[in-house]
Inverse folding.
């Protein structure tokens, strides 16, 4: 994935956690190839050498829009 032209931006969704003042740690990844799996995304963003990321809580991958929201357990993953 590191050779693909994906786009990454901070994602600040409205949720119960964010309304209670808790920091929601997520990024929106777009322009993903259709053959990428949720597991590959999780492994890539947990690998600090490749992505500078951190521990991933979950990945919400929408193959129709070729985008994913990657949720981190800690804001330091951003």
């Amino acid at each position: 994935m590191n050779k693909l032209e994906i786009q990454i931006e901070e994602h600040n969704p409205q949720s119960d956690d964010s309304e209670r003042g808790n920091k929601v740690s997520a990024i929106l990844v777009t322009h993903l190839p259709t053959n990428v799996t949720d597991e590959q995304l999780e492994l890539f963003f947990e690998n600090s050498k490749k992505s500078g990321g951190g521990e991933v809580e979950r990945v919400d991958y929408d193959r129709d829009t070729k985008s994913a929201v990657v949720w981190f357990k800690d804001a330091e993953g951003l």
About this structure: The radius of gyration is 12 Å.
